[in-house]
Structures are given as structure tokens and as C-alpha cells.
């Protein structure tokens, strides 16, 4: 890991603590008692989005490796950053965190299965992808579970302080995340930067943007319309989780596990715009229907 990766991990842990400090244990009880939003969100993340990605990849003018890379982005569901957007706009943060906790376990099965399917489909070959389960469990634990639980406990025992620091934490975390992303994209490869060319960005932008927008917009309308009829806040939360993928994990799968730098490029391009477009879409839809 480079210093940028360590810095990003530290910022994500601080963000997750802030998210946890805005919640109560009862919020999670309500989510699991009324499981329809959770189950729909998981279906849209784990099934609907990959199907969209396979269709778009089939018709996109990309190399076979880049098509596989697009699929890899789609099968790495959002993590702390998507939770952070729900937290920022006061969506259903408990639902967002619950989706992340459950899909972090599901991907141990779906990533090897679907990434191999993508290789067979677009590269006419086969490769075995095996995730380092213990490392992933540890990463999920240290970045998501432990800071969130500490935040929940902090809110329970020091609720007055938690309320007072809520806004300053939002400002600090947003600023830190923006700084880290800027460093990530403009630093050299030797320092942990992206190292992608401008030509590659413009060539990959249409397919990645189409996948992102179509999945996010369609998931919102699926959630809010019959037969599901979720509240506007829940529909927005689900669209955030479907719209913002875990590009750090996608780069790890493509570059480290599959040893193919071309497969990492869709994730790099996707990461450049998806946070901002997801935030803009969420700010609009959160105000439409409560």
C-alpha cells in the first residue's frame, strides 16, 4: 500500500465513525423488521446492475479487457463513500449501512463467479479469481464495522456531544475526501495515483457514464413505483447504493487478483465522476417525495 492508500483508509474510517455517531441501534432494528427495502436494494445491487453492465459492455466499443473491467466495477457494490452521501443528505443512513454490511459478505461469492463469467464472455478464455477472504473480512471490519459501532456507542453515551460535532464532522470529512481523491487522480503511479491518459478517459467515459446513470436512475424509479412503493428517502438511498460503486475494490480485483492493468481503467474513469453525479442526483430526488 502507498501513503495515499493509508490516507484514504484513515479518512474512510473517520467517515464511518461519523456515520455511526448519527445513528441509533434502533435504526437497524427497524431495517431488519421491515426488510423489503433491504432486499430490493440487494437485488438491484447484486443482480440488476451486473445485468445492465453486461448489456452495455456487449455493445460498447471497448477492448475485451476493458469490457471485463466494466463488469468488475458493476460487481463491486458501494461501501463507505456511498454511505457517506446518504449521511450528508440525511437519507436512510441505516439502510445504506445495512446494505453495505450484507453485500460485503455476498461479494465473496458473486465477484469470483461474475468476473470469471465476464472473462469467458468477452475474452473467450477462463481464469480463476479467488478473493483473499480473511483480508477482505479484516478490511470490512476495520473500515466499516468497528468505526460504525464506536460511533453508535458514542452517540448512545455522549449524545449531546455527538449532535454538536455532527456538522463540523460533515465539513471536515467532505474536505478530506475531496483532497484524497485529488491526490489519487493527479499523483504519479509510483505514489499510488491513477496514471491514466486523457485519451483513455474520453474513450471509456461514455460506457462508464451510461452504466452509472442508467442503473442509478432506473433503480430509483423501480423502488418508488408499484409494486414496491418505497418512500422517496428509501428510493434515493437505494439509488445512491446502486449508483456509486466501490472502485477501490474494483481496482484491487482487476489489477491485483487478475493482473491486468487494462481492466482497472474503467474503474479509474468511473471514480472520477461517480461521487459527484451520485451526490447531485441524490440532492434532487431527496426533495421530490418524502
What's the gyration radius in Å?
Answer: 18 Å
| Estimated helix fraction | over 70%
Output the structural class.
mainly alpha
What share of residues are in beta strands?
under 5%
Q: Outline, from the CA principal axes?
A: globular
Could you tell me the mean pLDDT? Answer: 83
Strands, total number: 0
Low-confidence regions: none
Number of separate helices = 12
By oligomeric state, this entry counts as: single chain
- Head-to-tail CA distance between termini: 43 Å
Major beta sheet, specifics? none
Query: How do the helices and strands follow one another from N- to C-terminus?
Result: HHHHHHHHHHHH
Give a verbal description of the structure.
Pfam families: SBF. This is Bile acid:sodium symporter family protein. The protein is mostly helical and 290 residues long. The chain is built from twelve helices and no strands. Helix 3 runs antiparallel to helix 9 and helix 9 packs antiparallel against helix 10. It is globular, with a radius of gyration of 18 Å.
What can be said about this structure in brief?
By secondary structure, the chain is mainly α. The protein is built from twelve helices and no strands. It has helices at residues 3-21, 25-33, 36-59, 64-74, 80-89, 93-123, 133-157, 159-186, 198-224, 232-243, 247-257, 261-285.
